[in-house]
Amino acid sequence: QLAALIRAAHDSPGVICGMPARTWWLVLFALDWDTGARAGELLALRWEWIAVDGDQWRLDVPPEVRKGGMEGASYRLTPLTIALLSPLRRKSGPILGYAAGRRPDSYYLWWDVLLLRAGLPADRYHKTQSLRRSFATQLAIGGGDVSAALTHSDLSLARRSYIDPGQAGRRHGDDMPFHVLELGESG
User: Fold this and answer.
1) DSSP β-bridge partners for residue 73
2) Which of 67, 92, 162, 181 could form a disulfide with 136 if both were Cys (CB 3.0 to 4.6 A apart)?
3) Is the dihedral of CA 125, 31, 17, 20 positive or negative?
4) CA–CA distance from 39 to each of 35, 107, 172, 187 (Å)?
5) Closest to 30 (Cα-Cα) out of 57, 62, 68
């Protein structure tokens, strides 16, 4: 399903938030793969929250943007995400161009169109939440702390709601389609 979604993103026509739709989707996927963030946090991410030290990029998100508003988060961005973001880099403003105060209706409508183009169900379980589940599953396979990454106090919640039990025997990174995120590939 993830590969179908990424292929559909590669073929997305038009513009989203002032960016080619194809680029917008790939940046959103890459950011979510690095952060496991919820939709609201992803859409609120800002350029001025990125700290660059040589070839290392870190994204520091303040508490008020995150669910509960109690603690911030710091995410190390992967080379793929950096490659996608580098040509788009600005001094400030929302990374995905999604204006603060904008109603989320359009975001979910864009998802519906993408999911239908990918041949996937256009329901709430196949949008940002499914990316978050993929993030959690891969983190668990790699031995990471899923509860901390998802900011859950209870691992059983992560296991029950986010980690795909059918993936338990896989190795971290097996058959993951994220190599097709690269802007030059067509899937």
Assistant:
1) 61
2) 162
3) negative
4) 11, 9, 24, 25
5) 57
pTM of the model as a whole:
0.79
Q: Which two tokens stand for residue 72?
A: 């911030």
Tens-digit pLDDT profile for residues 93-107? 999 998 766 777 888
Find the helix or strand (DSSP H, E) in which 16 lies: strand 15-16
Q: Which parts of 119-174 fold into alpha helices (H)?
A: 128-141, 146-149, 155-161
- How many alpha carbons fall within 13 Å on the CB side of residue 48? 4
3-state secondary structure at position 132: helix
Rounded Cα–Cα distance for residues 49 and 74 (Å): 9
Would you say the C-alpha torsion 46, 52, 56, 61 has a positive or negative sign? Answer: negative
